[in-house]
């Protein structure tokens, strides 16, 4: 009898525990609307990714999710906005390596993003491609290099802002090939691409997803990629490594962040929602078209990845001699 009584008591306790867990699981999200900050103008990969996962976040969390573009200062404005927001999960960032790990080596920031942000989860990791305006008489990298060498200071390359991977890749190209080409920074990759397409700037680096429509239209020509191996999206395009630059390997990565000190339980809830979104067939198809690697995982795994990235990008900044324009 005592044993049964103990079992009954235990069963009742377990029932209460599971009921409590169920109540927690069904608890309303702490705010009716989430501000989802894209720290760039519309048109670039960061903004595309924010809008790709926005409907899923709204569905999984049961709240309105509004993508808000806070562009400027090479993503520092939007990144700082989230880092200084209340740690309540109501303001999120679709951040990237520029705002989180690169800019701290180039700018005097009021808030160190590594300290001011809490990683929720990675979203995508995409190689860059070097592309040129279709009017430039070059069909490969060597021809472009020869043209630039014959006209020192006359060729320019665009980027979405000082300190962006696109900027640093341009500086590395100058360093590796001994070129005198001019950096033209823009407030976002969208405006940078528009001027290359228009012929006002000769070249730039961009992700495959953004540049693919312009390649298809014949307005630009892709010469190389920065991945460790050829992109499945553009398999005919050689890598920089294949073209004799073994250290010219990098990818743009993107992820969701909340303000530091956001409760761990809330970070976990956001991570579960994010991973469900990334596992959906629609989102997977979109990421595959971008040439993105599968980077979904836990907040802890994303945090460890960022820690490993810090010295790598610090080294790229030092090697390239990049400065804020």
From TrEMBL:
<keyword id="KW-0732">Signal</keyword>
<protein>
    <submittedName>
        <fullName>Tripartite tricarboxylate transporter substrate binding protein</fullName>
    </submittedName>
</protein>
<dbReference type="Pfam" id="PF03401">
    <property type="entry name" value="TctC"/>
</dbReference>
<dbReference type="InterPro" id="IPR005064">
    <property type="entry name" value="BUG"/>
</dbReference>
<dbReference type="InterPro" id="IPR042100">
    <property type="entry name" value="Bug_dom1"/>
</dbReference>
<feature type="signal peptide">
    <location>
        <begin position="1"/>
        <end position="25"/>
    </location>
</feature>
<comment type="similarity">
    <text>Belongs to the UPF0065 (bug) family.</text>
</comment>
């Amino acid at each position: 009898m005592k044993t049964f009584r103990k079992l009954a008591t235990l069963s009742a306790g377990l029932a209460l525990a599971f009921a409590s867990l169920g109540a927690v699981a069904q608890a309303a999200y702490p705010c009716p609307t989430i501000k989802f900050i894209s720290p760039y103008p519309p048109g670039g990969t960061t903004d595309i990714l924010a809008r790709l996962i926005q409907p899923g976040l709204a569905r999984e969390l049961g709240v309105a999710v509004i993508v808000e573009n806070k562009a400027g200062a090479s993503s520092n404005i939007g990144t700082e906005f989230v880092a200084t927001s209340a740690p309540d999960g109501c303001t999120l960032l679709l951040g990237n390596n520029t705002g989180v790990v690169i800019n701290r080596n180039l700018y005097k920031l009021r808030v160190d993003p590594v300290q001011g942000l809490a990683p929720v989860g990675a979203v995508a990791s995409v190689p860059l491609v070097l592309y040129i305006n279709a009017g430039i008489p070059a069909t490969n990298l060597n021809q472009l290099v020869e043209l630039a060498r014959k006209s020192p200071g006359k060729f320019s390359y665009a980027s979405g802002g000082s300190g962006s991977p696109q900027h640093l890749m341009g500086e590395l190209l100058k360093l590796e090939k001994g070129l005198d080409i001019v950096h033209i920074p823009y407030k976002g990759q969208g405006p940078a691409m528009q001027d290359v397409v228009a012929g006002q700037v000769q070249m730039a680096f961009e992700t495959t997803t953004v540049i693919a429509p312009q390649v298809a239209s014949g307005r630009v020509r892709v010469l190389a990629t920065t991945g460790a191996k050829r992109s499945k999206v553009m398999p005919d395009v050689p890598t920089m490594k294949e073209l004799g630059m073994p250290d010219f390997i990098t990818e743009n990565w993107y992820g969701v962040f909340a303000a530091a000190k956001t409760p761990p339980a809330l970070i976990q809830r956001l991570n579960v929602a994010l991973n469900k979104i990334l596992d959906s067939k629609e989102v997977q198809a979109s990421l595959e078209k971008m040439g993105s690697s599968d980077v979904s995982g836990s907040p802890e795994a994303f945090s460890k990845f960022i820690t490993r990235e810090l010295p790598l990008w610090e080294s790229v900044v030092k090697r390239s001699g990049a400065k804020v324009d």
